[in-house]
Amino acid sequence: MRRLKVGLIGLGMMGKEFAGALARFPHLTDIAVEPELVAICGRRLQPELERWFRSMAPTIELATRDYREVLSHPEIEAVYIAVPHNLHAELYTAAIRSGKHLLGEKPFGIDAEANAVIRAAAAERPELVVRCASQFMFLPGAQRIAQMLDSGEFGRIMEAELGFLHCSDLDPAKPINWKRQAATNGAYGVLGDLGMHTLPLPLRAGWRPVDVRALLADIVSERPDEQGRLQPCDTWDNATLLCDTEAARSSETSEHYRFPVTIRAHRIAPGELNSWYIKVIGTRASAAFSTKEINSLWLLSYEPGRKQAWRWLDLGCESCFPTVSAPSFEFGFSDALLQMWGAFFEEVARRGTPRSRFAGCFTPDETAVGHALFSAALQSQREGRVVAV
């Protein structure tokens, strides 16, 4: 078992999720690496917060407000960085240049220019594993659809839908935060936050957007700050993208072909809590999965002479990496995060090679496709037309 000392930069919600995932890491039963959290860093580090992290990880040796102390720690091999988008280029490139393996939060740069800077730094250190966080590809339903794509069960893809919907911003009196301000979140708005989570599975499957027609909505233009004063809320709340998409060769054709893909990323989605979904319609089969029914996969196969009917497959606790949980147990959000971390640390141990195509984390080059798509979406919204990606 290889021990791997890691550092955490960013002690917000996702930083806490990371500490919780490492505490559960022994739940993974088929992985030859043991990560150990030894350093934490946050600009607002307070004694109470530090005590919480130490309760989760007694192995912590360093607690600091200066990320450079984490990056200069000689025994740390890998870091997770979860900070606002405007800090990605500075901190991610610093981590790479310090020789640390990196898992960074999406969208991997506040814009395409920042993303290019990060990717250039990664290209200078090819021996490092540099990846972007996105856990939804590791859900059992997503993995089943990935297997169907791998085996050609769908035939020729006719259409697909992907989305991430939630209603956290439905209340216009909700105080403003950094994700609702372009200076810290970026011009993409909801696309840089929720939209990037829709892309890992289709990009890994070989789908590439060719062009896009975007409809973006700024629904709540002002929100109160901590003192109750209204401040501009200048990011897009909801985004719907229609993409002409190119797929690799299918089991029914030797040529590349195109099909429409609809992507929805909505922060203001009445009736939703936090729903990620995918639906694939093919000439031989179709499938649909949503975290609203996280343990259900809907399947439709076509048999000549028989009526068509969707059937419901009950899923269990089965993803890329076996766990101590019985396969019949139900799966949850924290389980997906644990699977993602298993994928990252295994790639570190295997020098960047995942155990299978859909068992590896989101790569910098894949995030570049996301940035190209979202930049084209902004242009499409401005000009009211279809824009090439």
Describe this structure as you would to a colleague.
This protein has 389 residues and is of the alpha/beta class. The longest helix is centred in the C-terminal third of the chain and has 20 residues, at 364-383. The mean pLDDT is 95. The strands form three sheets. The protein has a nine-stranded mixed sheet. The protein starts with a strand and ends with a strand. It has two domains: 2-132, Rossmann fold, CATH 3.40.50.720; 136-326 and 364-383, Dihydrodipicolinate Reductase, domain 2. The protein is built from eleven helices and 17 strands. Helix 5 (112-124) links the parallel strand 5 and strand 6. 29% of the residues lie in helices and 27% in strands. Helix 1 (13-23) packs across helix 10 (333-349) and helix 5 (112-124) runs antiparallel to helix 11.
How many beta strands in the DSSP annotation?
17
* Shape annotation: globular
What structural category arises from helix and sheet content? alpha/beta
The number of domains: 2
The CATH topology of the largest domain is what? Dihydrodipicolinate Reductase, domain 2
CATH architecture of the largest domain: 2-Layer Sandwich
Q: First CA to last CA: what distance?
A: 44 Å
Strand share of the residues? Answer: 25-35%
Strand order of the largest sheet: 16-15-14-13-7-12-11-8-17
